Amino acid sequence: MLIVALALAASLDSLRARAVADTAAASGPGAAPAAAAPAAQVEMPADTSRRIPGTRLRFGWSDLRLAELGFHLDRGARAGSCTWFGLPAAATLKLTRDRLDRAHFELKELSARDLDYVQDQLAREGYRRSCTDDTPPQRTCTWTGRDARVTATLSADAISADVVASVAPPAIPAAAPAALAGPAPAG
Question: How far apart are CA 87 and CA 126, in angstroms?
């Protein structure tokens, strides 16, 4: 392994040296050095590390990815059938700048066991519950977790749930010229 790594490193050094020599030859004797080309603006990929609980979907997935999964356009959103915690659901996926940022699930004809199962699974995944209206036959509760916030209305045999990312992904800070220049001269 070590011999292969050393051979690759030597090949890379050789290619770099050739590239420098080719650049110098192309500019000719006495030619001014070429100005550095401006760096291309590269869009950062969407953060897809946060998943929508109970599904295989992830926040930040592209519109194209959702279309490939079979979700069709419906009034500015993607809609289709999927499973939410293993139960059949109608899903409406909302996008911002062609990236998945919220989801709505409708589950109907559920048993009491199914309703308990969904709540137990959210708790098992570390979501904390707080209810604003906890009087039967209808409850409205919010589960807050690391990846998402789930607001659900539970009735005797149905769930209507909205899922949004709980925290925006961390922004990549722009380089601050003053910080790169070092300390200011005393004076």
Answer: 20
pTM, 2 dp:
0.65
SS3 8: helix
CA-based max dimension of the chain: 87
User: What single-letter amino acid sits at 72?
Assistant: H
- Alpha helix stretches (DSSP H) within the chain: 2-27, 63-68, 112-124, 177-181
Alpha-carbon distance of 112 to 158, in angstroms, equals: 9
Within 8 A by CB and 6+ apart from 134, the residues are 140, 141
Q: Could you give the count of Cα atoms lying within 13 Å of 16 in the half-sphere of its Cβ?
A: 6
**Would you list the DSSP string of 45-97?**
PP---SBPTTSS-BTT-BHHHHHHTTPEEETTEEEEEEEETTEEEEEEEEEET
The answer, yes or no, to whether residue 23 has pLDDT greater than 50, is: no
Cα 51 to Cα 60: distance, rounded to the nearest angstrom: 9
- State the average pLDDT for the chain: 77
* First-to-final CA distance of the chain: 56
pLDDT of residue 137: 79
Beta 138-144 vs 148-154: how paired, if at all?
A: antiparallel
For range 111-128, the mean pLDDT: 95
Q: Using one digit for the tens of pLDDT, what is the confidence trace for 106-119?
A: 999 999 999 999 99
